[in-house]
Specification:
- By secondary structure, the chain is of the alpha+beta class.
- The chain has two domains: about 1-100, no CATH class; about 110-170, OB fold (Dihydrolipoamide Acetyltransferase, E2P), CATH 2.40.50.
- It is built from six helices and five strands; from the N terminus they run H-H-H-H-H-H-E-E-E-E-E.
- The chain has helices at about 1-20, 20-25, 30-50, 55-70, 80-100, 110-115; strands at about 120-125, 130-135, 140-145, 155-160, 165-170.
- The chain has a five-stranded mixed barrel.
- A hairpin with a 2-residue loop joins strand 2 (about 130-135) and strand 3.
Length: about 180
């Protein structure tokens, strides 16, 4: 990550020097406007890749619009560029709202993810029909039941004590109902 940032900084330093050269300046009437547009696009791309909530994207939109206003040509009206910037901002806001809606999710790990899970019994402990093994969340768990278990029987996890899961038959009502 640090080497990427150093490479980008070096690239920007070298390309900034190239924009300051006379032949390039003749092609771009105002290098500041071109830089703002380039940074605006880079910030919009970074918004898609970084886990933030629109701050970089909003800055990218502002930089893009200001750079476009600086480089305006008489053929392209300023209200059109500002309107495009507003449409981009609305799209960014919509995408942020959609992203934030996906955040509240239930736990899928730990005790909260185990309790209530239903899984088949894979094997029984020799000589004890109350103790067996299940495969749950990618791991083998030892289980204990108040009633005798059968291989292949579906059981529901009701509690966990250390590495031992307490189970009941899946067709039995879960506790609290």
């Amino acid at each position: 990550m640090i080497t990427r940032c150093c490479a980008v900084a070096l690239f920007l330093a070298v390309s900034g020097s190239a924009l300051a050269a006379d032949p390039v300046v003749l092609l771009v009437p105002n290098p500041m406007g071109a830089w703002l547009i380039v940074f605006g696009i880079a910030f919009l791309i970074a918004e898609a890749a970084l886990p933030n909530y629109g701050v970089i994207g909003l800055g990218g939109i502002v930089m893009f619009v200001i750079g476009a206003v600086i480089l305006t040509n008489t053929d392209v009206p300023v209200p059109l560029m500002i309107g495009l910037g507003l449409v981009s901002a609305l799209l960014l806001i919509f995408l942020l709202i959609q992203a934030l809606k996906t955040r509240p999710r239930h736990n899928v790990s730990g005790d909260a993810g185990l309790i209530g899970s239903v899984t088949p019994v894979t094997s029984l402990q020799a000589g004890n029909a109350l103790t067996g093994w299940v495969h749950l969340q990618g791991e083998q768990w030892q289980v204990l039941s108040a009633t005798p278990l059968q291989p292949g029987q579906r059981v529901r996890v009701v509690a966990r004590k250390g590495l031992l899961l307490q189970v009941a038959a899946a067709d039995a009502a879960p506790p609290g109902e």
